[in-house]
Amino acid sequence: MSPSAVITGGAQGIGRAIVERFVADGYRVGVVDQNAEALAALAGPGIEVFPGDVRDDALIDRACTQVRGTDPLTTFVANAGVIRPAASTEQDLAEWELTVSVNLTGVFTGTRTARGHMAAGSSVVLLSSISAVRGFAERAAYCATKSGVNGLVRSLATEWGPAGIRVNAIAPGSTRTEMMQSMIDAGRATEDTYTSHSPLGRLAEPSEMASVVSFLAGPDASFVSGVVIQVDGGWHAAGLAAHA
Predict the structure, then answer these.
(1) Which among 159, 145, 79 has a CA at the least distance from the CA of 115?
(2) What is the pLDDT of residues 134-166, one digit of tens each?
(3) Over 90: is that where the pLDDT of 195 sits?
(4) Model's pTM, two decimal places?
(5) Cα–Cα distance between 153 and 174 in angstroms, integer?
(6) CB-side neighbour CA atoms (13 Å) of 220
(7) Which residue spans within 9-82 are E strands per DSSP?
């Protein structure tokens, strides 16, 4: 019996690295994403693709049903997210509501839908961010939604733990993804801006995030629940460097 996983936002960036890692780990993987072209390129052995909106509960339900077959769904990874940076005094309310609906409401409803396909031993992994615990100017909606994800982890882990279902998250720091590059291209940051905050002094690769998600989903983390693991090169911990 092979394990199964449904991953949202898996067509690129961290999500794609998670898909590739889970396939390598022997999972049957379902990928939900709006980018139909990228999904088509991703399709292959061990991967089923489901083009569409991650906020569509019927789509999530169908992905879980097809991927798990007659066995419970092993893992659900809520990775999909958007960022709409703007000065808080000028933030378009529609952009705020889009960010909240994808990054927080969609995470909750998708996870709740996947819960109906799970049993004792199943796990949920959400994607938080360094933005949940550090202040980022002109990112109010993104920071607020990622803080909300951290709250979901604690609540759902407490509620679903008695059923043997674990809920955790990772909080990536600066990672070499299309989303980060879009912020650089828009002139909102430089690569040095990001790397200067990490004691390790470099960007993370998406595969490094996928490795931690793989751990949280697997048997080595069988007694880990309700935690958010900072995968940020030390950014969250950093105070003042030596000789600064």
Answers:
(1) 159
(2) 888 888 999 999 999 999 999 999 999 999 999
(3) no
(4) 0.93
(5) 21
(6) 6
(7) 28-33, 47-51, 75-78
Predicted local distance difference test score (pLDDT) of residue 244: 60
Residues tagged active-site? 142
- Residues present in the chain in total: 244
Q: How confident is the model at residue 59 (pLDDT cuts 50, 70, 90)?
A: very high
Q: Please name which of 227, 109, 230, 103 lies closest in space to residue 168, comparing C-alpha atoms.
A: 227
Residues 6+ apart with CB under 8 A from 128: 146, 149, 150, 153, 169, 170, 171, 172, 228
Residue that has been written with the tokens 């920071």 in this structure:
143
Closest CA to 96 of 133, 143, 58, 59: 143
H or E segment and range at residue 94:
helix 93-100
Residues 6 or more apart whose CB falls under 8 angstroms from that of 103 comprise: 81, 82, 141, 142, 145, 146, 148, 149
The answer to whether the beta carbons of residues 28 and 3 sit under 8 Å apart is: yes
- Report yes or no: 212 and 154 within 8 Å, Cβ to Cβ: no
